[in-house]
Design goal:
- By secondary structure, the chain is α+β, with helices and mostly antiparallel strands.
- Helix content is 32%, strand content 23%.
- Strands 2, 3, 9, 10, 15, 27 and 28 form a seven-stranded mixed beta sheet that branches. Strands 17-16-34-33-32 form a five-stranded antiparallel beta sheet, with helices on both faces. The protein has a three-stranded antiparallel beta sheet with strand order 1-13-14.
- Helix 16 (396-415) packs antiparallel against helix 26 (799-814), helix 18 (491-500) packs antiparallel against helix 24 (711-724) and helix 20 packs across helix 22 (623-630).
- It is elongated.
């Protein structure tokens, strides 16, 4: 037989006492899973609604009358709260849900409805009522399959501290019992409990086997602990444990969630059996469901509980109670926005949009006796108001393609590595160069954020291990949270800065003969290499060929050193010096600042890394430091998102746009309350940025200079980027002649990191490399910027080999009508 439960009606009734089930939108009737429920189905189906209506009018479940209580006790008013469902999150179309709410059923216990031993008239009655209360906990544990825990209150186990020890005569026996139960020596327990007493931290419940617990099957084996010792040590179920912990922060009249996720069938069965479980109720709640973690985990994030009272107080201090505009007397106006057992957004969009997603609680105002018993309902608020909806800028189809291409080329890089990384690592960002909208953002490795909707005891051991793996660091988004040397993608900034300062012109050339030797003292030299032997280079061909020698010349200033005179270098097999006449790190720092380096981009997700802006203001500096910085190595660190933002600025004529993930915010009625407006951090051709230059000879002297680019400089760099994808460019193998009518401008990069792990093709010491490619398209009318980073953990992982083909596939997907596919 099937019980037809009117869940919509029960949802409306939930505000009545907060303990019944509520609607599963769009849900149908299901056959109940337990045989016992079939036995009560006929009676239950006929009487449940009537009983619930009676229950609304009779909120008391005590054995004495309300009138008696009113005559004998002090009356006060209290508020019982009801959490609202969190808002939903959609892709840019506003149709595809990325975060939704699954209707679940939570089991609650209300303390003042449990059998109360204090009402017993003698020892026998008190003992019997205590047994009845314990049976509620144990029967519920068996019904739900709860875990059991060993708990103790250190202060009770210890007793009073005396000169010769503690006064509790059972203390040593308890310590010996703990040794048997936990495999931890009694003397270690003695030290731990003594220290808690010394630190005055021994008053709250200490759960001994907090992580694993015991199954209900082991209940009988350890149940003797309840009677063996008089005070201090307990063997308690999950429900009992939560009620003990709740005593510190939840009034006795407020339901406490002890089991957050109950199947619908079991929820209805438990609701039918409520008379057998005094104090136990079932209420509807919502479990967050996140779209494909592979694509969205780092962006969407997850919710969780408050860590402590201090965090709760901080949140409540920042959020004022909300007044119901339609009903100023609404009891919900009197409650704090957050309670200790609420879920809050902790990471990603869940955290960033918390103030919009959280919703508005409902409340019931009641009068209570001095013992905490509800006497009367004084007022009921409107129903909880769901959180606002958040529409993201993400294109779900593009996101899938980006993930597919990124993963494919990471796998290819790992397959060709001699000593591949154990972690699949890479990131990709696609943005709209005219609005700053992030259209796609993917990072590997990823994690399953849906796990955070489950209690820890439902996690598999391998899932816990992966989350705790510090090498994988799966919760770190390689797109925004991780720090990387940008390699040759940084040369775009070096080129723009040197041109703008007129240290080079469009016609300035330098000769690349594989390496140069730079004197470091009066009789020693250091070689600085280029990846190729390029011959004579101008700025466009230097970008096209990614020539390191050219950018060393553009960056190192003409300075005089006490060791060897003017800064100079030597070509291979030459004793004739060439003198540097470049920018210097102080000027380069100014342009790095102009492009937003060393600062967060302003993306809604606040965990993003701000990157570095290294120079004499951060460490003792040298010519070698300037040279490595100029080519995106050394201490300079950026995120893929930052590189993408800078690439977009070269594409759109100089507007450094704040990346945006949130496109719209809508209230529960669907009315837009906040829409996307492009936010320009600065126009690098108009908005001057001051930078304080430290005189290296006298740190107390500073010069503040304003930095801004001329539009012609941007165009020269763009022309060089266009040549990168041409016949002679570093991306020519994948791009040249293969993109049809789509013109692409970009910059490859290969960034070394870590210790020396082998030799390169020229038998020089070599480190592992990361492959970069950042690009914008179409060149003549730019729409998007694409940035890809791939890490294989080995030598030879080059941008042109692995990152370029990933970007190519993304562009082919985005512009199918422009790309000539043969």
């Amino acid at each position: 037989m099937v019980l037809k439960l009117d869940e919509d009606k029960l949802a409306r009734e939930q505000i009545g006492d907060g303990s019944t089930v509520a609607p599963e939108r769009g849900g149908g009737v299901r056959t109940l899973s337990r045989l016992n429920f079939l036995r009560v189905g006929v009676v239950g189906g006929m009487t449940l609604l009537g009983w619930r209506l009676w229950d609304m009018q009779k909120p008391l479940q005590e054995s004495f009358s309300t009138e008696t209580v009113k005559k004998t006790t002090t009356i006060d008013t209290r508020l019982i709260t009801y959490t609202a469902p969190r808002g939903l999150v959609y892709d840019r179309t506003g149709k595809t849900k990325l975060i939704s709410n699954k209707v679940t059923y939570a089991v609650t216990i209300t303390a003042n409805y449990l059998p109360d031993p204090s009402t017993g008239k003698n020892d026998n009655e008190i003992k019997e009522i205590r047994k009845q209360r314990q049976e509620v906990y144990d029967n519920l544990a068996r019904f739900l399959g709860m875990r059991y825990y060993i708990g103790l209150i250190p202060e009770q186990v210890n007793g009073v501290r005396k000169a010769n020890g503690f006064t509790n005569p059972e203390r040593n026996s308890i310590l010996n019992e703990l040794e048997t139960l936990t495999s931890t020596a009694a003397r270690d327990w003695d030290k731990r409990l003594t220290k808690l007493a010394d630190d005055d931290a021994d008053k709250q419940l200490l759960v001994v086997n907090d992580k694993e617990g015991y199954s209900t099957e082991l209940f009988d084996r350890y149940a003797y602990l309840r009677t063996k010792f008089k005070t201090g040590i307990f063997f308690l179920s999950e429900g009992e444990r939560k009620m003990l912990e709740a005593k510190f922060y939840t009034p006795e009249y407020q339901p406490v969630v002890v089991w957050p996720d109950l199947p619908r069938e079991d929820a209805m069965l438990l609701e039918e059996k409520r008379l057998e479980f005094p104090g136990v109720g079932v209420q509807m709640s919502y479990q967050r469901q996140y779209a494909d973690p592979r694509l969205y985990a780092h962006i969407l994030g997850y919710t969780g509980s408050f860590r402590n009272q201090e965090q709760l107080d901080k949140f409540n201090k920042e959020v004022a109670p909300e007044i119901n505009p339609n009903n100023p007397q609404d009891p919900s106006s009197k409650i704090k926005p957050y309670a200790i057992d609420d879920k809050i957004g902790l990471t990603g969009i869940e955290g960033a949009m918390e103030k919009f997603l959280r919703g508005r609680k409902a409340a019931k105002e009641v009068s209570v006796s001095s013992t905490g018993h509800i006497l009367d309902v004084l007022g009921v608020s409107d129903a909880p108001l769901p959180g606002y909806s958040v529409v993201l800028s993400l294109d779900t189809a593009l996101q899938e393609q980006v993930a597919k291409s990124l993963e494919k080329w990471i796998d290819e890089a790992l397959r060709n590595s001699r000593k591949p990384k154990q972690v699949k690592e890479g990131a990709a960002v696609v943005s709209d160069v005219n609005t700053g909208e992030v259209l796609a953002m993917v990072a590997f490795p990823y994690y399953n954020n849906n796990l955070y909707t489950l209690p820890l005891n439902k996690w598999k051991p391998e899932e816990i291990k992966e989350m705790e793996d510090e090498v994988k660091a799966v919760q770190v988004s390689r797109a925004i949270d991780a720090r990387y040397a940008p390699g040759s993608t940084f040369k775009l900034i070096t080129a723009a800065a040197a041109l703008n300062e007129k240290k080079i012109t469009p016609y300035t050339t330098f000769v690349c003969d594989k390496f140069i030797s730079v004197p470091t003292t009066s009789n020693t030299e250091q070689k600085f290499r280029c990846w190729g032997k390029h011959g004579t280079m101008d700025i466009r061909s230097a970008i096209e060929q990614s020539c390191d020698i050219y950018f060393y010349n553009a960056a190192v200033p003409d300075e005089t050193s006490e060791f060897y005179g003017r800064s100079r270098y030597y070509q291979p097999n030459s004793k004739i010096p060439a003198y540097f006449q470049g920018l210097g790190i102080n000027l380069l720092n100014g342009y790095m600042k102009l492009f937003g380096m060393g600062e967060k981009t302003g993306l809604e997700i606040e965990s993003e890394y701000k990157g570095t802006l290294p120079g004499p203001h951060t460490k003792l500096w040298s010519i070698g430091e300037t040279m490595t910085t100029a080519i995106g190595q050394g201490d300079v660190e950026m995120t893929p998102l930052q590189i993408n933002m800078i690439t977009a600025a070269f594409a759109n004529g100089g507007k450094l746009l704040r990346p945006k993930l949130v496109r719209q915010i809508k209230d529960p009625d669907g009315k837009e309350i906040e829409g996307l407006q492009p936010k320009v951090i600065r126009d690098v051709t108009k908005d001057k940025v001051p930078w304080t230059i430290v005189n290296p000879d006298d740190n107390t002297k500073t010069i503040t200079t304003d930095f801004v680019l001329t539009p012609g400089v941007l165009q020269l760099v763009r022309e060089g980027m266009l040549q990168v994808t041409g016949p002679q460019g570093t991306a020519n193998r994948e791009m040249s002649g293969k993109m049809g009518r789509l013109k692409v401008a970009g910059k490859t990069g290969t960034a070394e990191y870590g210790e020396v792990i082998g030799k390169d093709k020229d038998n020089n010491d070599a480190r592992a490399t990361r492959a970069w490619f950042t690009a914008f398209a179409p060149y003549d009318n730019p729409e998007i910027a694409v940035t890809v980073m791939i890490d294989s953990g080995d030598i030879g992982n080059e941008g042109s080999t692995y990152a370029v083909p990933a970007v190519k596939e993304i562009l082919e997907y985005k512009f199918p009508t422009l790309v000539n596919k043969k």
